[in-house]
Amino acid sequence: LGSLLLPFLPAAGYPVKPFDFSVNGVTSLSADTHKYGYAPKGSSVILYANRELRAYQYCVYPDWMGSIYATPAIAGSRPGALIAGTWGVMMHMGKDGYAQCAKQIMTAVWEMRRGIEAIPDLCLQGEPVMSVLCFTTRRSDVSIYNVSDAMSQRGWELSLMQFPAGLHICVTHIHTPPGVAQTFIKDLRDSVEHVKTAKPGEFKDGVGAIYGVAEQIPDRSMVSDIAIGYLDTLYTA
Questions:
Q1: What tens digit of pLDDT does each residue of 170-195 get?
Q2: 3-class secondary structure, 200
Q3: Which runs of consecutive H residues, i.e. helices, occur in 119-206?
Q4: How many CB atoms lie within 10 A of CB 157?
Q5: CA separation for the pair 197, 22 (Å, rounded)
Q6: What is the pLDDT of residue 209?
Q7: Of all residues in the chain, what percent are helix, strand and coil, respectively (each to 5)?
């Protein structure tokens, strides 16, 4: 997620602990260049500490009747246009561009973080060092999933968490323009109040009706079966 954000945090004024090949035992790193690399969707990179490790990625079949078959990955064909687009974006951004974006993103992160911490009924989950803010409610009578539904009504689509229940927002460059972080906090505060004062049953058809129940099912295979059934419907004409 943060492979093209985390390395630029020190240059943006946010020190981080070592995480790359300088750490003993780290043998590979993956980088989704379509996230904080701003490249076309679907591009991704994997790095290895040495050539010997990289060789395990290759797919080689010397006895194929069509000649010796060798490809750098399982996939035989890769989209050249996507690779070219990724290269072009990264050359355009450069190190300075990525560092500038990192600084803008972290400024928004800290503004949102302080705003969440200032809402009495909410608390952060964990100690974020980058751009993902996870939070939940302090009150058992205020469902965090209902807060998600209330935020959806205000135009925010947050990611759901479970075990424990929570929400998270991945702060990206789209959240950095003036006023966006402040709007998020205002809408979040209003959403919490909305849930606290909601009429009984107002959120019965929201995500809480799914996740709130699913989290309590002891047999997780049942949840998997339901998810598989949903995926099956995607292939139904």
A1: 999 999 999 999 999 999 999 999 99
A2: coil
A3: 144-153, 180-196
A4: 8
A5: 52
A6: 64
A7: 40, 15, 45
pLDDT the model gives residue 182: 98
Half-sphere exposure of 92 (CA within 13 A, CB side): 9
- Six-digit token pair at 235? 């292939």
Closest-CA residue to 133 (of 191, 98, 181)? 181
Q: What angle do CA 188, 164, 144 make, to 5 degrees?
A: 25
What per-residue string of b and e applies to 4-26 under the rule 16 or more CB within 10 Å gives b? bbbbbbeebebeeeeeeeeeeee
Q: 86: which residues sit within 8 A by CB, 6+ positions away?
A: 33, 34, 37, 39, 40, 43
Nearest by Cα to 131 from 159, 168, 165, 100: 168
Q: In this predicted structure, what is the pLDDT of residue 213?
A: 62
Q: pTM, whole model, 2 decimals?
A: 0.86
Instruction: Tell me which residues of the chain have a pLDDT lower than 50.
Output: none
Coil/strand/helix, residue 2: coil
The residue type found at 168 is H
Residue entry with tokens 């379509």:
34
The pLDDT value given to residue 212: 62
Alpha-carbon distance of 184 to 34, in angstroms, equals 24
How far apart (Å, rounded) are the C-alpha atoms in residues 8 and 176? 17
